[in-house]
Amino acid sequence: KHIDQKGESGQTFHGMMDWVDLAQPPIVIIENVSGAPWEIKVKMFEERGYAATFLRIDTKEYYIPQTRKRGYLFAIKAQTKNKVVDRPARWTAAVKSLKRPASAALDDFMLPNDDPRVLRGRARLTAESSAGEGEGRTRTVDWTKCETNHQQARSMEELGDKRPLTNWSDSGNTAMPSFGWNEWTNAQVHRIHDLMDINALRLAKLMIDCSHKTMVWNLSQNVHRDTMGV
User: Fold this and answer.
1) Is 227 inside any structural domain?
2) Residues 61-70, mean pLDDT to the nearest whole number
3) pLDDT digits (tens, 9 = 90+) for 36-57
4) 65: domain CATH number?
């Protein structure tokens, strides 16, 4: 919704601006989604006697191996405008000077496979999947709806009909590689099984072995969407 409509974001922002009018803080920093109406917000601060600017940043440009785009607004109260007119530009330069593309792999932020917390989490998720929570195997209708799309993707992309990663069978059993989480995989529906194998085959065409590369797959997406981020 627009900032002046009575949505939750608009109400929160206007409530914050009411506080700014009352408290007159010397510096204000706001964080919000990248697509927020930042130009309008900057203008509203300027109308209140602040020098302001905004900047859109992405976490993967600041050390963290994750794409998360956010916007930040910086505003400083102008006692005498000439004294602070360059502060927003200096703030922007300072933030940009902190840039460093993420070089640490995702694995560096993850616990070892044998960590007790990982083992407890895996046991809980396996139990939930087996019980039919989330996208459990009892929801076979999902595979019926998607099977044609999967067959079409395999045919058009010349992937063949093999199941090299999960080795799933029509009975529902899977046989992941020794390092894989077979209990969780076995509890999923065939749509997910087949999507994992299609992803493995797509990568194989690019001469990439998915079993030797850390990747994050969005298995909730349709086979025709980008489920691998490559």
Assistant:
1) no
2) 89
3) 999 999 999 999 999 999 999 9
4) 3.40.50.150
